[in-house]
Specification:
Fe-S cluster assembly protein SufD, 15% helix, Fe-S_cluster_assembly_SufBD, 9-stranded mixed beta sheet, 6 helices, SUF_FeS_clus_asmbl_SufBD_core, globular
């Protein structure tokens, strides 16, 4: 069974003076929430690379994940023990599948059409807890996966989804945060150098609930993690954070969407990345939509990129749509630049060698995101991983 949705209020060409182009009549989607959505891959046209959601991506590198047949069997999973957190496998027709969102592009729909069972991570209990779910041994054949993370009302937890080893994976991750719950989800990509990972994350946040969603992308040839958050009920709050380090020939991409759909909701989006080596590439697109019912919204998004060598490219595109004037505030920012020469001079003037000074500057730049994870052991491990990236090992 598939689900397809599309707004019936699309504008006509006459309303906007749009004339037919050489490839047919074109009526652009006027707002982020009007994009076509379906769980059936057959509802999406083949990808050309010219589509708005794919124009920054190396689509030829993962054609098998967007158009080919996928292995949708269970993936190998290991999880740490945590009181109040349980893991199980549920069938694709379970009522808990599909509550957080619906695919807006072909890779996500192909994964949805192909998976057999979903991994369910259930969180309960008001005491704080941490669980790490590690996926490994996926191999080099194209695969699909589906994960549902459900936080019961007033529960608290940190859930880490970690990917290691080889992978050619397209997947969907649903996050449902119940009333008054406080959930942190860390998506950690530490794949091997030739791996490809495409992921769509969908989150629905309930009344007075809070989600901290953190994307950390270090390994993999092509990694594309696109989180969408629906602030569906009054008082919902999201902190969307991202950290990435792109090396030579590596493509790391994030397309972030935050939909304020209820009164007095709050969002903060901060993604920071570093790039070094010939052909290193990062893409960040940030869409924030403040709907006409989202009075009292407080929103801000930013992306910062630090370029360490020549031959790199960072694309950064913030977008903000506001459909009501009754808000507390909204804004966005984007910056891409090289080292701060004044910081380097300050450190060198105090006897610190240039190479070490550069590492300290980069570490300080990226540590802002790492330090918000809330788990000292994981934070320290990521700092060591970033040091290794800086040293090229």
């Amino acid at each position: 069974m598939s689900t397809a949705m599309q707004s019936t209020a699309l504008p006509t060409p006459e309303q906007h003076g749009i004339r037919a182009h050489s490839d047919g009549p074109i009526v652009p989607v006027q707002t982020r929430s009007e994009r076509f959505r379906s769980t059936d891959v057959a509802d999406f046209a083949p990808i050309t690379g010219r589509e708005h959601e794919w124009k920054y991506s190396p689509v030829a590198a993962f054609a098998d994940l967007t158009s080919g047949e996928l292995d949708g069997s269970r993936v190998e999973v290991e999880a740490t023990d945590a009181t109040g957190v349980s893991l199980s496998w549920i069938p694709r027709d379970d009522a808990r599948v599909g509550r957080a969102g619906t695919p807006e592009e072909r890779a996500s729909a192909n994964a949805w059409s192909s998976f057999g069972e979903a991994l369910l991570v259930e969180v309960a209990g008001e005491e704080a807890k941490t669980v790490t779910v590690t996926r490994s041994g996926l191999g080099t054949a194209p695969r699909a996966a589906h994960t549902v993370i459900e936080a019961a009302p007033f529960s608290q937890a940190l859930v880490v989804l970690r990917g290691i080893g080889d992978a050619r994976l397209t997947e969907n991750v649903e996050v449902v945060v119940g009333e008054g719950a406080n959930l942190t989800v860390v998506s950690l990509q530490e794949w091997t150098d030739e791996s490809v990972h495409l992921a769509s994350h969908f989150a629905r946040i309930g009344r007075d609930a809070k989600l901290k969603h953190i994307v950390v992308s270090l390994g993999g040839k092509v990694v594309r993690v696109n989180p969408s958050t629906h602030l569906a009920e009054q008082g919902a709050d999201v902190e969307a954070l991202g950290l990435y380090f792109s090396d030579a020939g590596q493509h790391l991409e994030q397309q972030v969407f935050v939909h304020h759909d209820a009164p007095h909701t709050r969002s903060r989006v901060t993604y920071k990345g570093a790039l070094q080596g010939e052909g290193a590439r990062s893409v960040w697109i940030g869409d924030v939509l403040i709907g006409n019912t989202a009075t009292g919204t407080d929103s801000y998004e930013q992306n910062r990129n630090l370029v360490l060598t020549d031959g790199t490219r960072a694309d950064s595109v913030p977008n903000l749509e506001i459909e009501t004037g009754d808000i507390e505030g909204a804004g966005h920012a984007s910056a891409t630049g090289r080292f701060d020469d004044e910081q380097l001079f300050y450190l060198q003037a105090r006897g610190i060698p240039e190479d070490e000074a550069r590492r300290l500057v980069v570490r300080g730049f990226l540590a802002e995101v790492v330090q918000q994870i809330g788990d000292a052991e994981l934070e320290e491990r990521l700092i060591r991983a970033l040091e290794a990236e800086l040293q090229g090992s």
